[in-house]
């Protein structure tokens, strides 16, 4: 089984469509046997689902994700676990153990609204303070 994680600085990156890298884990018999960092080379949103399919990914773990990307992943046969934050390695180990905490309704719905009022990234409402006033590594509003 191959598990892909949106990736930045050892952490699950918070916005699928803007991720610059995936960490791809090869899992066999309930253990990680290898992992590698894959650059997306600027691919965005729908193209990322195709990239993951070409890499043989069975599962994607990410933070926020838009509806179009959700549909593209579904069409590619890739299982989605969104709303995940923190260590990428821990997330994969939790998935393997069946204890991954995720949000099946995680969304990133700001594509037509910009980063102001109405922006919502995986359950975090940025309208109170604006995305420019905090570190995007918390949940990645970028």
Automatic annotation (TrEMBL):
<dbReference type="InterPro" id="IPR003731">
    <property type="entry name" value="Di-Nase_FeMo-co_biosynth"/>
</dbReference>
<dbReference type="InterPro" id="IPR036105">
    <property type="entry name" value="DiNase_FeMo-co_biosyn_sf"/>
</dbReference>
<feature type="domain" description="Dinitrogenase iron-molybdenum cofactor biosynthesis">
    <location>
        <begin position="9"/>
        <end position="96"/>
    </location>
</feature>
<protein>
    <submittedName>
        <fullName>NifB/NifX family molybdenum-iron cluster-binding protein</fullName>
    </submittedName>
</protein>
<dbReference type="Pfam" id="PF02579">
    <property type="entry name" value="Nitro_FeMo-Co"/>
</dbReference>
<dbReference type="InterPro" id="IPR033913">
    <property type="entry name" value="MTH1175_dom"/>
</dbReference>
């Amino acid at each position: 089984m191959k598990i892909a994680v949106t990736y930045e600085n050892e952490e699950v990156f918070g916005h699928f469509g803007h991720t610059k890298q995936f960490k791809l884990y090869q899992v066999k018999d309930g253990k990680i046997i290898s992992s590698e960092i894959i650059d997306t080379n600027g691919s965005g949103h729908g193209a990322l689902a195709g990239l993951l399919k070409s890499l043989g990914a069975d599962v994607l773990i990410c933070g926020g994700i838009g509806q179009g990307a959700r549909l593209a992943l579904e069409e590619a046969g890739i299982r989605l676990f969104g709303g995940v934050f923190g260590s990428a390695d821990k997330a994969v180990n939790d998935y393997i153990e069946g204890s991954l905490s995720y949000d099946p309704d995680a969304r990133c719905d700001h594509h037509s609204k910009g980063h102001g009022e109405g922006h919502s990234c995986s359950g975090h409402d940025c309208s109170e303070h604006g995305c420019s006033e905090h570190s995007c590594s918390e949940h990645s509003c970028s």
